[in-house]
Design goal:
heterodimer; A: mainly alpha
Chain lengths: 141, 116
């Protein structure tokens, strides 16, 4: 049985499919789901910004300095600020949702409690973020 | 079952790996690229240019960056594909469209990083 295969015609009469009540924005749960699903677009735009920066880097110092100037203009900063908030929202929500996924039990080792997984996720995010920022800041040579 | 239907586990794997990249690495990386360098938090444009060129000069760093950016595109494509289904756009063109764009993004990512 596959969800992709259309069901065989049934003699039972059914109503046509309709949206659930409160879909998509009136019901709180649907609203947050909607927002989370929409982050797919935010992440794509953020990746395109990163690609533009790398392209300027590959093109030489003139292109690099020109792009940094553009990125420092208030409208672009505002746009990138909104993108960054979207990326951060995705990260927080993804790591929070991850706690709800049942842990894989590895042999005799018991699965850690959910609170440990939650703290571990966010500790990982903070640690990796600090490592990246320190690496790119030039503090470590 | 279509080719895309048979390859669903592969798309799921790319989606999951991309989610980890987006959650764990992208917030800091985007902060550095979109704010740190333009606002001069990490020195002058000359200094940041030299440092970035130096850091990304070796092939493993280029490959890692290419994979990282590609996974963001694959994650987004899978997420948006299923979002489109939720919105009622359930036809055969949705999956090829989003995965095609992810493939295009992958080619662009590796094209750009190979030029560094």
């Amino acid at each position: 049985v596959s969800a992709r295969t259309p069901a065989a015609a049934s003699p039972t009469r059914t109503l046509p499919a309709r949206w659930p009540d409160g879909f998509p924005l009136q019901n709180r749960r649907y609203f947050w789901y909607f927002l989370f699903a929409g982050t797919g677009m935010v992440l794509t735009l953020a990746a395109i910004v990163v690609l533009c920066v790398l392209r300027a880097l590959a093109s030489g110092f003139g292109a690099w300095a020109g792009l940094l100037e553009t990125l420092a203009s208030p409208p672009v900063l505002l746009l990138n600020g909104l993108l960054w908030i979207g990326v951060l929202y995705f990260a927080v929500r993804f790591l929070w949702v991850g706690v709800k996924i049942p842990s894989v039990k590895l042999g005799p080792i018991p699965a850690p409690p959910a609170s440990v997984i939650l703290v571990g996720h966010f500790a990982g995010l903070i640690t990796l973020s600090l490592v990246l920022i320190v690496l790119f800041s030039g503090v470590v040579r | 079952m279509s080719v895309i239907g048979r390859a669903e586990p592969v798309f799921w794997m790319l989606f999951g790996a991309g989610a980890m990249v987006c959650a764990m690495l992208l917030p800091a990386f985007f902060l550095v690229v979109a704010f740190g360098f333009p606002l001069g938090w990490f020195g002058t444009p000359e200094a940041s240019f030299e440092r970035m060129r130096f850091m990304l000069a070796n092939p493993p760093a280029k490959a890692a960056l290419g994979v990282m950016i590609s996974l963001i595109f694959w994650h987004s494509a899978h997420h948006l594909r299923h979002f489109a289904y939720d919105l009622g756009y359930h036809n055969g063109a949705i999956a090829p469209l989003f995965y095609g764009l992810a493939l295009l993004g992958t080619a662009a990512a590796f094209g750009v990083v190979s030029g560094l």
